[in-house]
Amino acid sequence: MAPLVEVQGLEKRFSVGGAWLRGRRRVIHAVDGVSFAIEPGEVLGLVGESGCGKTTTGRLILRLIEPSAGRIRFEGHDLMALSPPRLWATRQRMQIVFQDPFASLNPRMRVGSIIAEPLAIYERAGATERRRQVSELLDVVGLDPAFAERYPHELSGGQRQRIGIAAALALRPSLIVADEPVSALDVSVQAQVLNLLMDLRRRFGLTYLFISHDLHVVLHMSDRVAVMYLGEIVEIGPRDALYRAPRHPYTQVLLSAAPVADPKLRRERIVPKGEVASPLAVPSGCRFHPRCPLVFDRCRVERPLLRTVGAGHEAACHLNEAPALLTGA
Ligand code: SF4
Fold it and tell me: Is residue 326 lining ligand 1, measured as CB closer than 6 Å?
C-alpha cells in the first residue's frame, strides 16, 4: 500500500527580523532535511523539546506555511505541484487540531457555526443538512447536540478541544495533524481527549501525525515515533523498538525523564549538559554534541546521518557504528 503522506528533504528557513550580521542575513533553519512517510491508518508521533521544529513540520505538511525546499506527497499527489484550486480541494482531506482550543475557536461564533463553517466553505451541504451534521459530529465527540447553541467561553478546556476535533472531522479527512492536542488541558481531561482521538481513529480509519513535547503521551498514542532535535529527525522507528532499545542518546535522555508506572521499567535519569542551542547558532557536526553525555571528537566535526539500526528503525549517531558503546553492553 502506498503511504498516505511522504515527506522528503523538507526544509524551512526563516530570516530573522531583517537583521544583518557581517553582511550575511541571519537565518533560522527551523526544519532541516526532514524525511518520513506515514501509512494509511497509522499514527506517527513527532516528539522533541519546544522549538525543535515539530510544529513547523506539521504546518509545512498541510502547506499552512511554505517549505523552503523538499517534497510533500499526500494521497499520491505532489502537493508542491498542485494548482491552487486542486490544493484547496485536497486540503479538505487534511485537517489540524490545534494546541490551544480557546485561541483556535472564534469567540464570537456559536459552536454550531464553528463546526459547520468548513462544510459551508466547501459547499458540502445546505443549511438543514449542515445542522444535522453538526448534531452528529457533536455526538461523535461525546457532547450533547444542545452544545451547538453555546459560545466557546461557556465551555471547559476539554469541551473546547472536543469542538476543535469535531470541526476537524467535518470534512471527513484522511489525515489529521494533532499539534500538542492535550498540552493545554488539565491532566484530568488529557486521557479523555486522547482516548477520544484513538476511538475516532478506529471508527473513521484516520491517520495522525501526533505532535507533542511529551514522550510519554507520544508512546501511548503512536505506532511509530520520530524524535526531533534542532530541526532534524535524530531517530525514527516502531514505538516498541524505540522504547525498548533507543539508539540515539537524545532519545535516551527523553526516555529517562518520562514517568513510568512500573518501577521495574524505571530508567536511570540521564541529564543532558546545558540548554538546547539557539537555532541561530546550530552546533557543528552533530547538533546534539554540546549536550551529549557520550560525545567524542568526531561528533564535533562530522554530522551523523540517519542509518538503519533495526527493522524500520533509523538513528543519526556515530556510535551506532559501535553499538556496544551506545547501549553500554
Ligand atoms: Fe552524541 Fe556523538 Fe552520537 Fe551526537 S553523534 S548523539 S554527540 S555520541
Answer: no
Q: Is the beta carbon of 306 within 6 A of some atom in ligand 1?
A: no
- The reply to whether ligand 1 has any atom less than 6 angstroms from the CB of 289 is yes
Q: What is the structure's pLDDT at 326?
A: 65
In the sheet with 5-21, reading across from the earlier edge strand, the strands are: 24-38, 5-21, 69-74, 77-78
Lookup: cell for 233: 529527525
Backbone φ and ψ of 19, nearest 5°: -70, 150
pLDDT above 60: residue 201:
yes
Digit-coded pLDDT (tens) for 58-115: 999 999 999 999 999 999 999 999 999 999 999 999 999 998 877 889 999 999 999 9
Using N-to-C axis directions, what is the helix angle for 157-169 and 127-140, rounded to 10°?
130
Find out whether the beta carbon of 249 lies less than 6 Å from any atom of ligand 1: yes
From the CB of 317, is ligand 1 less than 6 Å away? yes
- Is the minimum distance from the CB of 230 to ligand 1 under 6 angstroms? no
Which of 227, 229, 273, 295 maximizes ligand 1 atoms within 8 Å of its Cβ, making it the mutation to test the pocket?
Answer: 295
Whole-number Å distance, alpha carbon 287 to ligand 1 midpoint, is: 8
Distance (Å, whole) CA 185 – CA 203:
24
Nearest C-alpha neighbor of 46 from the set 199, 219, 255: 219
Cα angle for residues 270, 276, 279 (degrees, 5° grid):
155
**Nearest atom (ligand 1) to Cα of 304:** 5
Got the DSSP string for 85-150?
Answer: HHHHHHGGGEEEE-S-TTTTS-TTS-HHHHHHHHHHHTT-S-HHHHHHHHHHHHHHTT--GGGGGS
Question: Which of 291, 289, 254, 253 lies closest to 273, judged by CA?
Answer: 291
